[in-house]
Design brief:
By secondary structure, this protein is mostly helical. It has a domain of about 45 residues. About 55% of the residues lie in helices and about 0% in strands. It is built from 13 helices and no strands. The chain starts with a helix and ends with a helix.
Length: about 190
């Protein structure tokens, strides 16, 4: 997301000094000189690499802290080093069965994940095929489910009016940081999602 759109002008000047958010992450790619950008497969492979270097470590850290705070020990069975190395070597065409049908999306578009999921139910094909004789078909073919908090649903329905007043009001403290126009745009989109 473009930082300039998200923050109000004063915060933008103090925090970003005109830097694009791309600057924060480009080093992930600079350290891997073998990355190519010639085909859609390359872009997906690079996206998976980027997520493994940025999103996953943060997810594990949060998961570890939250679980240990409740005397639980989480396990990540698919994160075994050898299995991860093997999975990274599998060609993208085997991971996504409908690669040629994939649509391009604006990364800054709010609600893009929902739009994508409505059109495609693809992914984890190697795992689905490997387990097809052990797991019932209705489980193998069901939609992928994430483990995110259901925060999007908290902002809709009967809660929408409360959230709108809380973050969309002129006296809202969030306006000290976030651009009010951006908040209003998000509220309009959330209100239109069924």
């Amino acid at each position: 997301m473009r930082i300039r759109i998200l923050f109000n002008e004063e915060v933008y000047k103090k925090t970003s000094a005109g830097r694009h958010s791309f600057e924060l992450f480009k080093n992930v790619f600079l350290y891997n000189k073998s990355l190519r950008y010639d085909t859609p497969e390359d872009h997906i492979k690079n996206s998976l690499y980027f997520e493994a270097k940025t999103f996953l470590p943060a997810l594990f850290l949060v998961g570890d802290k939250l679980s240990m705070a409740h005397s639980l020990e989480e396990r990540f069975p698919f994160m075994d080093n050898d299995l991860v190395d093997f999975a990274q070597k599998i060609p993208v065409k085997y991971k996504l069965g409908r690669l040629e049908e994939m649509i391009r999306m604006d990364e800054n578009e709010i609600g893009k994940l929902r739009k994508f999921e409505m059109e495609f139910n693809d992914g984890k094909n190697v795992l689905r095929k490997a387990m097809s004789e052990l797991i019932p078909e209705k489980i193998i073919n069901r939609k992928k489910q994430g483990f995110s908090a259901p925060d999007e649903s908290w902002y809709r329905g009967e809660n929408f009016k409360y959230v709108s007043e809380l973050v969309g009001g002129k006296k809202s403290r969030i306006n000290e940081i976030i651009n009010p126009k951006f908040i209003k745009k998000c509220l309009r989109i959330i209100n239109n999602i069924k």
